[in-house]
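Quiz preparation item.
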């Protein structure tokens, strides 16, 4: 049995050398204004954070995004889980732009992203990227239809 205290205080490295090899991926550019963040490919690893505020509170969320960006986050995810949250995303972006915080916002969608992006196109326009968990999009043809709807937006 390994004693975790002894392991944590030993001179051994936390991970074996080579354990964090990167997979080959496509490079994707995530933009907002003049700010371009490269993700994947041979680009450096990007610092990404997520707010823990209620996205329906635009001021509180914008202030937390500002704090995260000033602390070094290059992308910031916000939850977009309700119609009220989707309505506030443009206000969040507007507040950030007024503060000259050009960090790209990533909308984190679960279950109803296809509906929210379709019903609230201003939300879609205020985001630089969408994060979608395929496991939360239904199954079979329904999942395919939901993805197609999001791609169309």
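Solution:
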């Amino acid at each position: 049995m390994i004693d975790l205290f002894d392991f944590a205080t030993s001179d051994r490295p936390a991970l074996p050398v080579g354990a964090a090899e990167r997979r080959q991926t496509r490079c994707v550019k995530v933009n907002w204004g003049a700010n371009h963040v490269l993700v994947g490919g041979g680009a450096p690893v990007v610092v990404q954070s997520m707010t823990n505020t209620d996205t329906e509170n635009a001021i509180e969320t914008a202030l937390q995004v500002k704090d995260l960006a000033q602390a070094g986050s290059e992308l910031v995810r916000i939850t977009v889980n309700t119609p009220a949250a989707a309505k506030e995303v443009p206000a969040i972006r507007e507040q950030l732009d007024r503060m000259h915080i050009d960090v790209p916002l990533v909308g984190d969608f679960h279950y109803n992203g296809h509906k929210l992006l379709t019903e609230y196109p201003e939300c879609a326009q205020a985001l630089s990227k969408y994060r979608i968990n395929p496991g939360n999009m239904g199954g079979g043809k329904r999942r395919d239809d939901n993805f197609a709807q999001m791609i169309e937006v």
